[in-house]
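REQUEST FORM: STRUCTURE PREDICTION
Request ID: SP-0412
Submitted by: Lab K.M.
Chain count: 1
Length (residues): 276
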Amino acid sequence: MNVTAPVALRVNPDVDAKTHPYISTGLSKNKFGIDSSAALSIYKSRNEFKNIQFTGIDMHIGSQIAYIEPFVEAISKLSELYFELRDEGLDLIHFDVGGGIGVQYNNEKSFTIEEFAEKTIPLFKKLSCKILFEPGRFLTANGGVLISEVLYNKQNGNKKFIIVDAAMNDLLRPTIYQAYHHIQPLQQHKERVDIVADIVGPVCETGDYFARDREITKTHSGEYLAIMSAGAYGMTMSSNYNGRRRPPEIIVDRDNIFVSRSRETFEHLLWDEKII
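STATUS: Completed
RESULT:
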């Protein structure tokens, strides 16, 4: 095609991000990226690839990272590779540190952007290239909520359940990561007592829950709960499991409200089904 493709290699710096093992991606035992020695060999062989221009070096060590030290360690390791490549005559255009900056779902102690800058800018200043970041969750997680209607309350012995119309197919993080999402009523009722209950959905899985043994104001059928911090990995990880239709997505921009994704119908589920 007579095209020269710009290419960057994702390098695995073998750094422990100290996060949930399912979203740790920067250790040598993880499937992501290639190790520094393999990357160095490929970069050095660049003249063998006539239609490729190596333009950058990338990493992403994990998600929901609460400590700066793993970033500093990973950036330092990749910087060593960057300088070695520069000595070999390869001037890279960009240095991509990926994402992973943690957000507050509950009472987690995390670092601020100012603290991150204080620790990393001295490292970046040594590099003569563009620095890229991919802070997806940091920008979106706390910008979205999942609104769910209470279907009914149930009690098995001493165990209380609040069954809502949302389910694990709408927000999967509690099921697969045991992740915490704050849950609160849309309308406060200060005269009501607090109870301890599991907040669960109607899907036929014991893992279909949003919170376990959570203290929450007593609710009644037809009222609404807000499941907080659903702006990242909510809709993007949702599915039609159990034949369930996805909810609409609604954007609230000050006084402007509009539907950005319509509520799915049964026709949505069947549109690509073929008998023959």
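NOTES: The chain has six helices and twelve strands.
Reviewed by: T.R.
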